[in-house]
Structure formats: C-alpha cells, structure tokens
Structures
1.
Amino acid sequence: MTEQKIVCFTLDVEDGVSIAMRDIFGKNTEQTDRVVTYTKQIIELLGKHGVTGTFFVLGEVAKKFPDLLKAIAKADHEIGVHGYHHLQFFRMTPDEAFQELTSAKKLIEDLTGSEVAGHRAPAFSITPETEWGLDVIAKAGFIYDSSIMPVRGRRYGWPGFSKDITTIPTGYGNLIEVPMSVGSVFGKEMPVCGGGYLRLFPYRFTRRMIEQILQKRPAVVYMHPYELDTEPYPDYYFEELRKTDLLTQLRMRSMWINRKTIFSKLDDLLTQSNFVPMIHLVNEYIAGVETEGSTV
C-alpha cells in the first residue's frame, strides 16, 4: 500500500435534526435516534468492505447514545472529537472552545477507555480568522487536527494553506494538521470529497476527482450520518421551516436532492481504494519526519 493510493474515510457523527433546529430556527431540541440509525448503517457498509475509518463524534451524541460509541469502537474504527455542542470556533472565545473540546474528549475517553488523538471542528471552522483555535486544540491534548479546507469558500476555507499533512507549531507544542482534500475543476480548486458532493454529482465525477488527488497525496473523504436519511424530518421541523423566508425553505429542501443515490455511490466508492483510519496517515507522517531527522 503506497501513501499515494490511500484514502481516509471519515464520518462527522452528528444529528442533522437537532443541529438544523438550533442553527436555522434558533430552537434547542434533543438529539434524535436518527444519528444512531444511519451511523450504524454506515458501520455495516464499511464492515461489508472490510474498511475501517475515523468517526469524529459529537459530545452530545456520545452522552445520549453511549452504546453507539461502543459500536463504533467494537468495529475497530478510530474515534475522534467533533466538539461537544457542535459550536463553530467563530461562535466561541478561546476559553469556551477549550471547555468545549476538553469536555467532549474526556467524555469519549471515559466511555471507550481509549485516548482520543484527533479532532475536527464543526463546519471546518478553523480559518485565518480563528487561527487561535489551533492553539486551543493542541492545549486540549490532541495529536492531530483535520479541520482546514485549503480553499476560499463561501462558508469556510483557508486559501493558501498546505494541501499536504503538515506540522503546525503552537504555544502548546506541535500539532499535526491533516487538511481536507480539494480537487481542480476547470482550473478552480474546490472541495470534492464530501457527502454533499457525492450526493449532487455523478459518481464518476467523484471517482475522477479522488483519482486526481491520489496522484499527489492521500485523499480524505468525509460524510455525515444524516446524508443517508431519506425519511421526512419530524413535524416540529417543518412547522419551523414554514415560518422562514422562501430562500431558506428552498435551501433546506435542496438538501434532499439525490439523497437516495448516496448509499449506492458510497458502496461503489468503498470498493475502489485502500481505505485507512486517519491515525494511520498521521503515524506514517510522524515516522517519515523522524526518519528525516527532524521533529514533528
């Protein structure tokens, strides 16, 4: 297995219903068991292909559904932290972010009995404006982070950031950054390996983009459990949706376009590459740096 042919499958384990209720409608609601249903579907699909990946789990999900955390660990997947309340870094102070990360890390470690090495920020919210977050992540005790999208985007992105795994010096030691994968489409760099892109574009496009990335570096694929959810959301969700403006209604309803195609596309994708958990890439990177005689 050569480094250039490796793909990481990552899942941001969060409940789409409760996050939409809070972030779109300003209503705090309980986590729903949909996150359990669709995370387990993904675990089963990965098992079918003999694939292990990295599951970045939200603290709120781990607290309400500890058995889901145990199911992830039992299937030999790596478990990382996705924050506790799914708060983007630009919504927090450094002290609040530290509490958010350490509380989730401790909870997950207590439930699994294993140390957590990796972190991913909600909505890839480590950007030039929240660069201070890298210090917080290192201070919280993480070995690596995978939160930076190295492109200029509408909602997130860090244009000019390295596309390769890199070491970031912080005030609390070095932090390894595993950036998200981007591809070049008609000369424009853009995210191409997320569940939303798998949903919207033909499978052959996603496969071609991954092959393009693999010519230079490993690829990172990311998804969310709710992207497999094709059932109508609860009535209380639609009651709030009807109160919003037309643009918001259209934007939220557009998230169901092609959802029924994702499972089969993912099924095909998992047969095409050598998939590994992200900690594998990190360990290979550390070994390579040490071989070259420098420090990580």
2.
Amino acid sequence: MKFPGLRKIKHYFPVSQPKPQLPSLDVRPALDTYIVGLDQTIVDVVASVSDEFLAKYDIPKGLSNLVEHDKANRIYHELVVNNAISDHFAGGTIGNTIHNYSVLADDKSVLLGVMSANIALGSPAYHYVCHTSSKVDMNHLQGVAGDIGRGITMITPDGERTFVIDPSDMDQLAPDYIPTPIIAGAAAFVVSAYPLRATGQPIQQAMLKALADAKAHQVPVVMSLGTRHLVEENRAQILQTIHDYVNVLAMNEQEAEALTGFRDPLLAAEAALEITDMVLITAGAEGLYLCGYTDERTKRESSNPIKSASLADFNRFEFSRPMLRRHCQQPLKVYSHIDPYLGGPERIKNTNGAGDGALSAILHDMAANSYHKQVQPLSSKHELPYLAYSSFAQLCKYANRVSYEILVQNAPRLSKGLPEREDSLEEAYWER
C-alpha cells in the first residue's frame, strides 16, 4: 500500500516481516488491502460531431442515451467513415475509479462485471484490457459470448458532451458471480447508480447481492450517482438504495440538485447526510465539497480561513476525521470545501472522469486507514473507528489534486501516480 502523503515509514511498513519473493497478482482476502468495484464494463469512444449529426439519429443533446445495438453500429460506422473518432478508452465510472485507485495506491483492486470470453484484436474488450492497470484483478469477471458495452461520447462544437450507450452484454452479470469472501475482505465496495436502471437485467440483482454482502460484513459502501438524467428518472429507487446500503455518496452539483432538490452544494450535502455518512460533491469551477460526520468529542477546529455561505462558518471543524454516523456518540456534521487546484487548468481537454478521479483519492485514503489499522492496531489513529486516515480538509486537498490531473489530460484514467502530497501542520495532531 502506497500512502497518500509523506509519512513516517515506521508507522506503515512492517519491515520485520519477510516479503514474498513472488507477490501474487490475485487478491488474497486474508493478506491484502484492496477495494472491490462492480461496473457495467464498457469502452468509451470519443468523437467530434455536429448538431445535425445528433438530429439525424434523433439523439437528445447533452444527455446519456441508451440505444439498441444496430443503431449504435450505424452511428459508429459513420463516425469511422468521417474520421471523427479521436480516441478509444476503457470506460465505466467504477472501472475508471478502481483503475485510478490502483495507480495511486500502487496496490490491488478487484473488478466485478462481465468480459468477452473470446477477445478479438480491436474489439471493445481488447481496448478495455489494454487500458486497465495490471493491479486490477479481473479474475472474478463473468465471461460472456458477446461484447462488453460501448459508450460513444459525441462532442459538438459548443463543447457539449452527448452520450450514446450500446449495452451489448454488459448487463448480463449474474448474482452467482458475486464472490462474497472477496467483498467481505475489502476495505470498501464501490458501485454506481447505473445498474439500477437496468430493469429486468441480471446485473441489477447482482448489484443488490453485492450491496447486501458488503452491509453484512460491515464493509463501507461507496456509490457514485452517474448523471442528472439518471437520478431524475430513478430518484425514488436511488434514495432507497442509499438509505439502505450507502455510506459514502459521490456526485456533481447537478446530480446533487436532482437528488435533494437543492441547487446549493452545501444545502444539498446537508440534506444527503440525513441518509448517508459522507458526501463528495464536485462542483466544476467552484471546486469540491466533502461533508460528513465526526464525534463531538473528537472535533478539531480548522486553522484555515473560516468560510460562510448558505451555512455559517461551515468549515470550522474541517480538521476532524470522518466517522460513520452510527459510530458517533454525539454526531456532528462537518463541511469542507476547496477551490480548484491552481485555479484549475488553463485549458481543460476533457472533463470526463474528473469526479471519478476525486473519488479514487477518497477510496485510497479509506484503504490506507484500513491497512494501517491492520499493521498498527494500537496506534492513536485508531482509538475510534474512523472511516478514513486523513481529515476532511486533507481529503479535499488530495481529491482536488487527482481531479486536476484528470482535467489536464485527454483521458479519464491516470497513467501514473502523483508526486507525494505535502502534509500540513494539522496532520501532525493525528501523529501524536
């Protein structure tokens, strides 16, 4: 486990224990620290199109649109003929997240989903495997006869992104392919809301089984919402799923408004904290918000400038560490905010995946906390059952930095890790 910061080596690496000469590529639940993600395995195709092209195929602009396989093939063929395709990327919001996690942590993660049993050169499955970190364990994928999904991102001259989704066999994941022991040993289980709209498809039941397994074994559940349109269409089901299973909720400001009815991110986070334990909201040029709970007895005041907006002095206790609400004797809501790193990139090549990158940083810190608890159980860091290793403020810094790296490149997945981030003086408090 590579830790997200400059730490004292003695705290994290049990050097007295011999290291295996040939480390296993497969996840070993009793020995490894890892996260598990369930996803609709899909390849992203990026293309430039005109408004007339969207109208020709009756594709609503700016939305995520499910289309049948033959229509998607016609769209793809015309894009190839017009030389409009710029890139193929391994996609999927959770696939992106766990890939980025493995790059940041330089450690293992597990992907659950489907994969073509026979992978042909140039096929969607081929592109997916080629663009996924070797640290991601794919041994638990379900083999299918057809293709994995294909998502076509069509960018119009005004910069608006419109999505065409060809599911193919990506929703055929059966509940029998959910490995309960793997989930039970994970530091976190992460999933998106997308499978909830796959009504009548096996993946919906597979997702519910995985959520139930995680809850039964007290594994933190993290959910990413997807798109505003998805939330609006499935709001009641999403709210119930969050209430029943989810500990950490990740979304952008549009999805937050669709879920809670509040346009203001702080008010949306305050409302969401009534049904979950921690909320990450990415708000574009406004930066990002991380909100959650800590115990009144462990609250830690910030030395950063105190901010007021729709909530007065909202970041006052952002140096506190997150906890599950049920673990707090006196739960206290904590809010933290950070502006875009370096004011944001001078030129944003692609916003796709920025939120997934921020979430991968949060997951990295949660997994680091789990690892440190295993190797240093008597550390003062674990006097109470904290959800993450760092404070709300430090988590914001790390998530913000990773999001920036996604924005300055033309792909939703990191190709390499980040330079070690600097620790502020407030972190020294937790080293005592």
3.
Amino acid sequence: MNAASASPVFALPGPLALDSGGVLEGAEIAYQTYGKLAPDATNAVLVCHALTGDQHVASPHPVTGKPGWWERMVGPGKPVDTDRYFVICANVIGSCMGSTGPASLAPDGAPYAMRFPVITIRDMVRGVIALLDGLEIERLHAVIGGSMGGMQALSLAANWPTRAERVMVIASTARHSAQNIAFHEVGRQAIMADPAWGEGSYYASDERPDNGLAVARMAAHITYLSEAGLTAKFGRRLQDRPDGSAGTKSFGFDADFQVESYLRYQGSGFTRRFDANSYLYITRAMDYFDLAEEHGGRLADAFDGARARFCLVSFDTDWLYPTNESRHVVHALNAAGAKVSFVELAAPHGHDSFLLEHEQLDRVVRGFVE
C-alpha cells in the first residue's frame, strides 16, 4: 500500500517496454476496485482517468478529502453499477498517485525527476494491461474513458482488440490538434520558468514549482470550460473585498473579477495533489498521441479486425475536443466495419460536461454498459 495513494499497488512482474525503445524497470501501478469480480471474471469494467485524474474514481481522495472524481457515475445503483460490475481504475504510469512516475525512486535510490523515460498513451495502457493480467481478467465487459481516458480506451481497442467487449469514448480524440499542443506548451513553459523547478530536481528541496504548476492548471482549466458557461457563472462580476465593500475594484493586481479568483483557486488547489514533473510528462504523452500514425497513417487501419462495440459521446460546447473529432473516429470505425454508435449531447459546460451532472449522459452510459 502506497501512503500517497492510499491504494493497492501492483508490481509489474517484468520490465515495461516503452514506445521510445527503452524499458521501465520495477514499475508499479496503483489502482482501486469497486464491487465484486464474478467467478468467471466477465463483469469487469475499466474506467480510465483524464490528465489530472487518478484511481479514486468513486472514493474520497486521500490528499484533498474530496469525493471521487466520477462518484456520480460509478457506484451502487449508478450508471456504472458496482452492484453488478467489478470496476477498476488505475493511476497511469507517469502520474503521481502511487504509480511509477518522475517522483518515484530510480534504481540508484534517487527520484527519477527528468531522468524518467518519455512515455506515451500506449505505454500507459501497457501498464494497465499488465495489471489486468495480474488480476486474471482476460476480457473486460467494458472500458470507459473521458478526455485522456478516452485516448486510453481507443488505444486499448486498437492495440489489444480482444481485451474489451465494449469501448466507450467520451469527449476525446484520436490525436491532438496544433491548438491542443499549443495550450499544453504554455503550461509546460510556465512550470519550467518557475525558478523552483530547478531542471526538475526539486524533490529534496522545500521549494516546489507551485507557481508555475498553478499557472499551467489555470490555463488548462480555461480550455475545459465554455465561454457561455463562464459568462453565466461569472460574467464581469467583481469580487467582494475583505473590508466588506461589495463588488469594488482594487485598481491593482488583486483578483478584481470573480473569474480571476476562481482560476487562482483552481491553480492553488491543484498544487496540493499533483506533481509538476508528472504534468510535463503526461501532457507530452497526450501531445504525442496519434492513433492513425501508430497504424501506418490511416485511422481505420487502427481498428482493423476490431471486435468490440463502440460508443462515442461528444458535447456541443466542447471546444477542446469538439464534435468533429469524435465524428472523425466514428467514420474510421465505420470504414473498419466496427459496430459503433455516436451521440452529441447539449451541455453548457464545455469539455468538463462529462464530469458534471448530465441526465442524458447517465442514460447513455447506463444503456451502453448494460
């Protein structure tokens, strides 16, 4: 049990081969499970987390104490019903909640830091496949993922086509656009420009690159929202001042506007639970992800011989991974002869809509999983 993750930890029985050509020795995967595995192991559902997520999909976070990031979706009687299904959620390789990542100790006893090997989405899924083998789960009833979790679900379906009966991809894409990469680079540069980053070797120091990481989180968080959602929630409303004055300007660089205060809160809270180097590595893995390129340049070829049923879901206000990205995947699946359904849902909250209350999404998830 890893104290930082408060989760079971699976030690891979051998080296983890990486797309870079290297290997990761002694890798570990932290994970959580919910429900009971059937005797024939046919009721397993894998939930894959997004960039800043973790294995605590339906249980309190050990650092923040907040509810699991998809507690509204996973649990007894919920769309992913743990009275019926054995749900697994694993922290990806490269992250910082118990799985091997830049903060982990290298064979020489010092943290990897920037010596950690460059990883890809497919490398993350290789780690999860090793975990499933360790749990003796040969075929998943379903794999579900939103955002980066959707990338993992697609990678699993393309590279391990016999391992899942159903594949659900929510608010995701088969490759990053130049705009996606650009936003990630702004965040990475904010971290690396923080004097406390120290070329990534900050683990022995009392100072962490929290300022840079907070800015990276603020910039990314804007892409998770929608303009209409921000306007409805904040508009141009001013902050109430500590002296009791309501909605007044400071004429300085304090958080005058409510939206400024909200973003600063998001940034500062994030540094409590996430590692800056992990953010660098995981965003780079997302940027490298290109499922078509992995399979000769044609996306349909990635799903050649796919046996699973697919369901893709997008949201009409998601400008990070807009609906046309999901349609691109659907067209490739159709070209490959795969069984696929697709729905675009209306929601005011942008990319983050899959994490928030949405009755139609609940019905889609429940219907597909069942």
